Amino acid sequence: MTPTAAPEAVKEAVNKTVTKINQQVKSRGTRVKNALRNAELEVLKGKRSGRKYRKPNSKRRYTASAPGEPPARRTGALRLNWTGGVETQAGSGKGVVVTSYIESNTPYAGYLENGTGKMAARPYVDRIKEKAQPEIDKILNEDYS
Fold it and tell me: Compositional bias of type Basic residues: which residue ranges (predicted)?
C-alpha cells in the first residue's frame, strides 16, 4: 500500500462508520417517537374520578376527569388523533441532530392541557413525557454497532 492510499482507506472507513451511526441515530429517533405514542395511549386510558355525565344523544353515562387528572375518554378523539415525526438536520461535523415528537390534531387539546376561564386544566403532556422517559433513556443509551 502506498503512503497516499492509506489515508484514503482510513477516510473511506471513517465515512462508512459515520453513515452507519447516523442511520442508527435516525432509527432511534423513530423508536423514541413510538415510545412517546405508546406512553400517550397509556396516559389517556383508564377510569377517572370526576363527575358523572350522560353522553350526549345517548342514555349511557361516563365519568369525567377531575381537575388535575388527564382527560377522560368520552369519544376517544383526543387519544386517537395524534401524529408524530422525526426531524433530522445536519449537526456539527458529519453528525445529525434528530428531534422526535408527537402532537395532537384535536383542536381542543390545548384547552384540556392548560384549562380555560371556565374549566380547570387536565394536564397530560408532562405525564406522557414522564411515562416515556425510562424507555427513551434505554433507547438512547444503547451501544452503537
Answer: 46-62
Q: List, for residues 51-93, the tens digit of each pLDDT value.
A: 999 988 888 888 999 999 999 988 889 999 999 999 988 877 7
DSSP string, 61-92: EEEPPPTTSPPPPSSSHHHH-EEEEEEEEE-S
Q: How far apart are CA 100 and CA 32, in angstroms?
A: 6
**Looking at residue 22, what DSSP letter applies?**
H
What one-letter code names the amino acid at 56? Answer: P
How much is the pTM? 0.85
Distances (CA, A) of 68 to 35, 50, 64, 88, 112: 23, 10, 12, 35, 10
Supply 60's cell numbers.
Answer: 349511557
